[in-house]
Design a protein that fits this description.
The protein is built from eight helices and seven strands. It is an alpha+beta fold. The radius of gyration is 16 Å and the shape is globular.
Length: 180
């Protein structure tokens, strides 16, 4: 079951989301993600941003995945960091007023069952934003493949720190729409 949560509901389950976050990103052998930092610092900071939206996937009453984002603006850390790493033309076209996908996390026990796609579809559904941005791994992993299947385009294959910048132009018809 996919649910959309407001700020207060998201913060109320912050520790549970933190555990999913740590499990999902720990699966890639990276530096361990800190579930407490996620629940007490990252999530509360982001939950106060404009148009914050978080969706969860639950199985048997347990959160097994989530995705969230908000409106990205110039003057915020991530949009400014990305603007410095890309061409001025790309920054002017894409950065500011976009929907910023911050996290997509699915517990390893629940991966490969379509939850990532369902979460991203629910997160993006009905948004007023014309453009959306996210960063993900620059190498070949499940997440970048998922985003491409969902119509996201690689805008910058490697930003210089192992991440690629992906964009979704919601004004343009998708290839599926054009085929109809």
């Amino acid at each position: 079951m996919i649910d959309t949560l407001d700020r207060d509901a998201a913060l109320a389950i912050g520790p549970e989301l933190g555990e999913v976050f740590a499990a999902a990103f720990g699966a890639y052998g990276e530096e361990p993600a800190d579930p407490d930092r996620f629940a007490t610092e990252q999530l509360p900071t982001h939950a106060d941003r404009e148009d914050f939206r978080l969706v969860t996937a639950q199985v048997n009453g347990r959160v097994v995945g989530f995705a969230y984002g908000f409106t990205g603006r110039r003057g915020q850390w991530w949009p400014d960091r990305i603007a410095e790493a890309v061409s001025a033309e790309l920054a002017d076209e894409w950065i500011g007023g976009h929907f910023e996908v911050v996290e997509l996390a699915v517990h390893p026990d629940a991966q490969r069952n379509g939850l990532g796609a369902a979460l991203m579809t629910a997160l993006m559904s009905g948004l007023p934003h014309d453009k959306a941005l996210l960063t993900t791994y620059s190498d070949d992993r499940p997440a970048p493949r998922l985003y491409r299947r969902l119509g996201w385009q690689v805008l910058v294959p490697d930003l210089g720190w192992g991440s690629a910048l992906y964009g979704l132009d919601r004004e343009c018809p998708s290839p599926d729409d054009l085929a109809r």
